[in-house]
Amino acid sequence: MPKEKQILDVPDYMTVRELAELMHASPIEVMKQLIANGIMASINQQIDYDTAAIIIEEMGFTARPLREVEEEARRVELEAQRPKWRKELYEAEERTKLQRRPPVVTILGHVDHGKTSLLDAIRKTKVAEGEAGGITQHIGAYQVDHNGQTITFLDTPGHEAFTAMRARGAQGADIAILVVAADDGVMPTTREAINHARAAGVPIVVALNKVDKSNANPEVVKQQLSDLDLTPDEWGGNTLVVPVSAKTKMGLDNLMEAILLVSEEADIVANPNTKGGGVVLEGRTETGRGAIATLLVQNGTLRRGDVVVAGLSSGRIKMMFDERGRQIQEAGPSFPVSIMGLDTPPHAGDRFEVTKDVKEARALVETRQQESSSGESSAPQALTLEDFFRRMQQADAKELLLIIKVDVQGSLEPVVNSLEELTNNEVKVHILHADVGNITENDINLASASGAIVIGFNAEADTMAERAAASVGVEIRTYSVIYQMIEEVQKALKGMLDPVYEDKVIGLAEVRKVFKISKVGQVAGSYIRDGIARRNAKARILRNGKTLAENLSVSSLKRFEEDVREVRSGFECGISIDRFNDFHEGDLIEFVVRERVLI
Ligand code: GDP
Fold it and tell me: Percent helix, strand, coil in the chain (nearest 5)?
C-alpha cells in the first residue's frame, strides 16, 4: 500500500522561502521545481495557493487550503458555543410559557404598628366577600380578590420570618407592605424591615396605619420615609404610601390598588403548565391526620396524587385543601394549600418539588440526608472577610455586603461613612443594614440570606445570634477601634488579610493497655474520657502533665477491629499513631483540630 501523503495546510499566499520551510525542503529545490513549471520566482517572492499546491503535490505532499482548516475550526468553536445559545433560546421559549400570577405579599413593620390587625382586617373584609360563612383556616397564607384580581397574603407578619425563609434559600414574597403607625412613625424595626426588603429586592408599599387616631401625624411620617429614600409619590417619589386604618377598615381598597399597581411593574410570572414547586410555609403534625404541610406553589401546578419532596420529608399527596378547608384537586402558582400525605412535617422555608415517583423521591431525600450529615448543604455558601478577595478575583463578588451594629447613635454615621468610603473601582462596599444595638439573630439571618458579613462596633452578638452564626457559618467581626476596623476591611479588599487558625482540642483519650502488633507497631487500647476522638485529627501525647509529642497523625482508630472515623466519650477504642511507638499505660492522647478563628 502506498504511504499516505502528508497533508500540508497552505495559506492563500506565501513566499517561496515559506513554502520550502513548510515542506522542510531547501529553497533551491523549490525554486528548481518552480522553474520546471515555467515560473521564475525569487526566494522572497509571493506565490499564490494554486502555484504552491502544484509544487507541493510534485514534491510528494498533499495541499489543503489553510482557509478551510480555519473555517472548520471556527465552525467547531461555534458548535461548542451552541449549547449556550441553545440554552438561551430554550430559556426564551420557556419565557413564552410564563404567565402572570397573583402577587404574594408579606407584611413587615415595627411591633404594635398594626401588622396583625391589618392582616385580619384585610382577611375579614376581603375574603368573606361573597363567601358568607366561609371559615378561613390558618394555613400560613390567604388570598383576596380585588376587582377580579387575586392577591396572596402571607400570614406570618414580620421580616424575621421573611428573612429566615430567605436564609434557607427560598423567597416567599414578591411585594412587602411596610406598616408604619401614623401616630408613632419610623422606628428601629421599621428601618430594619426596609433594609431586609431591599436586600431581597422586594418592592415596598407603605401602609400608613392608625390614621383614625387623633394624634396621627401622617405628614411627619412621610418626611421620615423620604429621609429613608421612600419618598411618597405625591411628593414626587416612587413609593406608594397609602393611609389606612386596620380599626375602621379605611383605605384597604386603596392598599389593594397599590399592591396591584406595583405588581404590574414587577415581573410576577410563572409557568402553570409544569410540575408544581415552591416553598413550605408551615409544617406540623395533627393527631389523626399525620403530617400536615402548608405550601405556597410558586411555579407549575400541584395536584392531588403528586409525589412531593419537601426538605427531608416526602410522600404522595393524599388530600389537598385550600384556605377554607375545601378539598381541592390542584393548585397553580401563588396558591397556598395544605396537604396530607408526607411522612414527616417539613420545616418552614424548605423548598418543595414534585418528583416522578416514590423511588425518585426517596433517592432525593437520601442524597439530602447524606449531604446534611457530611455538612454540605445547598444553602448559599457563607462568606468570610478573608475569602472575599479570592471570590472577588473569581468575579464571584463585586460587592462586599456588610451589616453594621454599633453601640451608640453617635458612632453610626462615622462607622458607616468610613466603610462606604472604601468603595473603589473594583469593588463596592454596600451596607445592607446599619443600626444601634446588639447583633441579633435577625442580623445573622439577613447576612446568611444575602451573603453578608456582620460587623459589630462596640457591639456584641447575643447568644441566639452567636448560635445562629455558628450554625449557618456567618462571620461576625467585632471592633472597638475605628481605624482597626477600616484597616482590616481594606486589607480584605486587597486580598491581604490572612486567615487566623487556632488549635482546638476536641477529645481526650486515656491509654489503658498497650498492645504490640507486628507490622502495625503499638496500639493503645484507650478510653475516650472527653469529647470525640477523630481519625483525621492530629494527636498530642501527654505524660505526667508534660507534652511528649504533638502534631502526629492518627494512623488508625478502631472499635472492635473495625476502622471508624470517630469515637465518642465513654467508649473504648484502639488507637495507633504514626511514628509513635512508646505508649505507656496512663498516657493521655489529645485530639486536636485546626480551626479558623473568626475575630
Ligand atoms: P403588630 O404587633 O404590628 O402585629 O400590631 P397589632 O396588630 O397587634 O396592633 C397593635 C395595637 O394597635 C393593637 O392594640 C391594635 O388594636 C392597635 N391597632 C392596630 N391597627 C390600628 C388602627 O388602625 N387604629 C387604631 N386606633 N388602633 C390600631
Answer: 30, 35, 35
Pocket test for ligand 1, best of 106, 111, 112 (most atoms within 8 A of CB): 112
What is the C-alpha separation between 554 and 353, in angstroms, rounded? 43
> For the chain, which residues score pLDDT lower than 50?
1, 128-134, 376-379, 599
The secondary element (H helix, E strand) that includes residue 337 is: strand 336-342
Q: Nearest C-alpha to atom 10 of ligand 1 is from which residue?
A: 112
Could you give the maximum distance between any two Cα atoms of the chain, in Å?
Answer: 112
Q: Which runs of E-coded beta strand occur in 16-139? A: 46-48, 62-65, 99-100, 104-109
Residue with cell 396572596: 152
199 CA distance to ligand 1 centroid (A)?
Answer: 27
Determine the distance separating the centroid of ligand 1 and the alpha carbon of 149, expressed in angstroms: 27
Give the Å distance between the CA of 262 and the centre of ligand 1: 25
As a whole number of angstroms, the distance between CA 323 and CA 598 comes to 46
pTM for the model stands at 0.66
C-alpha cell at 494: 486587597
Cα 364 from Cα 241, distance rounded (Å): 45
Residue entry with cell 451594629 = 405
